[in-house]
């Protein structure tokens, strides 16, 4: 049933589109893990002017679909001064969406750090940034790495949502090729294999990172 010649002919176009998928995933996740950390720290803050807005933002983003959020940024954003390309909107939208989830992951990791560690940091009068960087975060990150890895893979698989705002990533390219040649079996199958292979590679890399960060027994 599969036309191998046709599959070979469309492979370069799909590989080219896959670069956009990878770029969205890499940049989006890089933003998400950094922004998520700040949101988690702000949510845990004793200052209401920091914790309340952070909590409200996290809950709002987690409670609304990604598709609606990128639609809003793309179609409503220009009217409020957000003049970005579809690709930039896509990266921003998916990054902020997953930042709200990584924030909860970080919060769980920070809650696992023994209370004595926090008290020791305060007793030694550590500056906040140094305390998080040198003492707290190394202990908080180890147990949450699997969850962060899962969200990275989930972000990869959510990139086709951005085709709704004209971002031509690999899934949209597959649909375009299928409509052009009236054959969907080959392009859709190849896209499915691409996501499967890349998800397995990412899962393996995350596992290797987990092993590397394990404490010696």
UniProtKB/TrEMBL annotation:
NCBIfam families: ectoine_ehuD, HEQRo_perm_3TM
InterPro entries: AA_ABC_transptr_permease_3TM, ArtM/GltK/GlnP/TcyL/YhdX-like, Ectoine_EhuD, MetI-like, MetI-like_sf
Membrane topology: Multi-pass membrane protein
Protein's recorded name: Amino acid ABC transporter permease
Gene Ontology CC entries for this record: ATP-binding cassette (ABC) transporter complex
GO annotation, biological process: amino acid transport
Family classification: Belongs to the binding-protein-dependent transport system permease family. HisMQ subfamily.
Subcellular localization(s) per the UniProt record: Cell inner membrane; Cell membrane
Ranges in coiled-coil conformation: none
GO MF terms, alphabetically ordered: transmembrane transporter activity
Alphabetical UniProt keywords: Amino-acid transport, Cell membrane, Membrane, Transmembrane, Transmembrane helix, Transport
Transmembrane regions: 22-42, 80-99, 184-206
Gene3D superfamilies: MetI-like
Signal peptide start-end: none
Domain ABC transmembrane type-1: 18-206
């Amino acid at each position: 049933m599969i036309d191998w010649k046709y599959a070979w002919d469309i492979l370069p176009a799909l590989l080219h589109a896959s670069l956009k998928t990878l770029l969205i995933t890499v940049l989006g996740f890089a933003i998400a893990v950094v922004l998520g950390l700040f949101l988690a720290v702000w949510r845990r803050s004793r200052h209401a002017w920091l914790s309340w807005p952070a909590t409200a933002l996290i809950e709002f983003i987690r409670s609304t679909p990604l598709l609606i959020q990128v639609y809003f940024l793309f179609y409503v954003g220009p009217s409020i001064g957000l003049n970005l390309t579809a690709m930039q909107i896509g990266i921003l939208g998916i990054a902020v969406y997953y930042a709200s989830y990584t924030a909860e992951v970080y919060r769980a990791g920070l809650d696992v750090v023994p209370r004595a560690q926090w008290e020791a940091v305060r007793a030694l009068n550590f500056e906040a940034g140094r305390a998080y960087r040198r003492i707290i975060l190394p202990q908080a990150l180890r147990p949450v790495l699997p969850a962060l890895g899962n969200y990275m893979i989930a972000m990869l698989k959510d990139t086709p949502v951005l085709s709704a705002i004209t971002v031509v990533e690999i899934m949209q390219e597959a649909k375009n090729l299928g409509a052009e040649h009236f054959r969907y079996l080959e392009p859709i199958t190849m896209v499915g294999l691409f996501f499967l292979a890349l998800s397995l590679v990412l899962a393996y890399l995350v596992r290797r990172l987990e092993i590397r960060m394990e404490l010696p027994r």
